[in-house]
Amino acid sequence: MNGVNKTLYIPLYGKAYVSRKGIILNDQKAEEIWAKEGFALGGKSRSKWLAYYMGMRSAVFDDWLRRQSIHKKDTLVIHIGCGLDSRVQRVGIMDLCWYDVDFPDVIRERKRYYSETENYHMLEADVRNNAWIADIPKDRRAFIVMEGVSMYFLPQELKQLFSSLRVHFIDVRILMDCYTAFAANASKFKNPINEVGVTEVYGMDHPEMLEDGTGFSFVKEHEMTPKAMIDLLNGIEKVIFKTVYAGRISKNMYRLYEYRSA
Known about the structure:
Oligomer: single chain
Largest sheet: 7 strands, mixed
Structural class: alpha/beta
Shape: globular
Order of helices and strands: HHHHEHEHEEHEHEHHHE
Radius of gyration: 17 Å
CATH class: Alpha Beta
């Protein structure tokens, strides 16, 4: 895998770590994959603080999906940049149509651990090339999660993706995390993704920029590290995490935005 694709190991480790501890996220699939493969990660990539952050971020995305009317007729879920994530199992697809989308070599790796069904599908695609959208039934209501992926898009590529999704579906909701411009610049010098060879990322400071010409409206900013999840940590860990990873410094680096089609 190239550097961008290898970044999937970082959140996988974080989810396996918190799941083993029995806090924040129950992800037995992440535990299984990590224990079986033992991917080579070191340095900040295996920091417990980053693991807590990755676990909380994923739990927030899961909770957002659970709160949506995803089980209504003609509705589907798309997880863009799915990596080896088990969200489809954590949220529960039941009779829901669900698409996990990622680069071809990531999906080939993913198929070692997951199997497609009548309702669950895995698509091989460079998601920056919007041709993959045509492989999904159109004129549906779509709930889309983009976790840990927007920072690899140029701003214009994000706009093009949003526009293509708006044309294809009758109603769209998107939850997406992103770097700020400051974080993108800082990431060239100090970021766990550097340890798997990634140095080029992008950020944005104004979520409204994606409204221009895309057919979407910015809904609101979500909390990436909710107090209820931080309270699951113990003693000094809670204090340190709240100060460093959920404080002003963190919010100057990383944001979580919701959009809906206008």
